Amino acid sequence: ARSPQLRNIVQRAEDLQADYDFIVVGGGASGLTVADRLTENPNASVLVLEYGSFDSHEDAVLVPGLLNLTSTPYWFNLTSTPQLHLQNRSFQVTIAAAVGGGTCINGMLFHRGARADYDAWEELGAKGWNWDSLLPYFYKSENFTPTSSQFADEWEIKFDKDVHGSQGPIQASYPPYQFPVVKNFFHAFHGLGIPTPRDPNDGSAQGVFWAPSTLDPETKTRSYARVAHYDRAVQQRSNYHVLPMAAVTKIMLDDHKRATGVEYLARNTGKTHTICAKKEVILAAGAVHTPQILMLSGIGDPKDLASLDINIVSELPAVGHNFQDHPTMFFINQFQNDLTPNADDLVRNKTFRDEQLALYRNQRQGAFTIVANGGNTVAFVPLPNITASAASIITSAAAENLTQLYPDAPPSVFQGYRAQRSSLLQNARESRIAIQETAFNGGFMPLTLLHPLSRGRISINTTTHLAPPLVDYRTLSSPTDLAIFREILRFNRKLLLQVPLAPLQPIELVPGSNVTSETDMDNVLPGIVGPTFQHPCCTCPMVARENGGVVNPETLEVYGVYGLSIVDASLWPLIPGAHLMGSVYAVAERAADLIKERWNM
Ligand SMILES: Cc1cc2nc3c(=O)[nH]c(=O)nc-3n(C[C@H](O)[C@H](O)[C@H](O)COP(=O)(O)OP(=O)(O)OC[C@H]3O[C@@H](n4cnc5c(N)ncnc54)[C@H](O)[C@@H]3O)c2cc1C
């Protein structure tokens, strides 16, 4: 007989039960959250099928400062199509394949978008999804530990405990270290009229601030979905199974269009298997793969599916459209008169690095408590604060030619996009949302466009098992996005001229101080803007079908079929002005409640 532990932990297809109540496709942030909540009920059996492997709790995952995105084994092997408006360059599609998904290797910034970001979801048709309805779930997901008032005062960390959760599975805290130059940045932003909010997570999501990290306050290790929503739960629950290295290839649907289970390929044996779901199949494969799986299962644009000989089950032409991410450029400056220690010292100065690593190992202090090449100090700035041309940019954005912008969108997607655009432009005009993010802890500064007007698409051109989807970001297809990037660059150049930063004597390396005229910027920016800040979303939005919707917002079930729901970041109509993980966890928490409700659990 097997030990109880073995019954809880499965590693091979042979160890699975014959069927489960729920099958969750994808064991990332959303998938594990939902699986955890469903298995709180001992009568519900849940299987999560995850494409990637379990990590080994290695330092590169657990120790923030040892994260190495170049050598991590947890990337999908996936490249975008050539990007027309980015000088035809192709890009790595930076999504994770591992139990825990993106949360295994992400930058650990844990914060929320603005109230207006989520209220816009409801205005666009996602009935029941707004800031107020999500707030209890932001709380539910989080266990916030404040920092000492002395450290907070010294480093301008502001927080309000009342806007945070204190019982949730995901740990949120502040690293107990920072590079001194961060103070100069704070003062420079203040000089430009960008304040530090009382707490960025109170629905404001604007200003210059420290975002909490998903950092365990005791161990100073990463708090992520694998630990918080699987390890924590599974030892006590024989009803919660996760099978790693299992690539779901399609959903099985019966003649009544009910999802009865899934087909998957065990990646370590190459064998294909099927497994049945007695209640529901729940898609949580992320915004790139969830639409791919739908299309492979006959749910999508009939034109495209017919050309691949896929039997059409539900005509949903919007599947895979409305693809959004946060395009980013790197503004790189060398500080000739830099403060020490600094982020470069961690790379170039072996003595400093060794000293800091020892400090981390022995006392859980120092620079390794911060994510490598990252940090959690950021500025989120509305359009009217970055440029005096905000009004004219908004006027020309409203007049953009949609057909040029979105050549192959079906009418329903157009309709939905029009509503999105007016909502976005109104919120931008009234400074209810931030338009740009500057992340900073040295001269290497990612500048991010938080509310792009360009829309990409996920599609498929083959039914071959394990073949990747086509990922077309279409970054900068909206001329407005390019115009805003010009203003973002000008604004951040102005930042570096402020009294607190000027003494560092920055020399601009990228794009280069000679790039000043509009024409020069328009030539150079498409060569340095990248399509992603690792935030793909919005490819199966929960709005009305006639407005480009794929999912019923009240039930999260896919239109036209039964027993099939979606819980990941594909659901959202619009990308929020925030790093996505906080919203992914909250949405998945609410999704779990909706699913439990319909099954009286
Ligand atoms: C490098 C990086 C840095 C980031 N930094 C931050 C940050 O600092 N702060 C922040 O808030 N957010 C950050 N993010 C984003 C955040 O991690 C994601 O938004 C979040 O993980 C998305 O959750 P999800 O459940 O939608 O998808 P994921 O977490 O990506 O999970 C999807 C899972 O589905 C699996 N899957 C896909 N296809 C299949 C299939 N066919 N069969 C079975 N399984 C499948 C994948 O392997 C994956 O594990 C970052 C992401 C990355 C990659």
UniProtKB/TrEMBL annotation:
Its cofactor is FAD. GO terms for biological process: secondary metabolite biosynthetic process. Residues 286-300 form the Glucose-methanol-choline oxidoreductase N-terminal domain. FAD binds at V248. Keywords: FAD, Flavoprotein, Signal. One of its GO terms (molecular function) is flavin adenine dinucleotide binding. InterPro entries: FAD/NAD-bd_sf, GMC_OxRdtase, GMC_OxRdtase_N, GMC_OxRtase_C. It comes from the Eukaryota. The active site is at H535, H579. Belongs to the GMC oxidoreductase family. This is GMC oxidoreductase. It comes from Periconia macrospinosa.
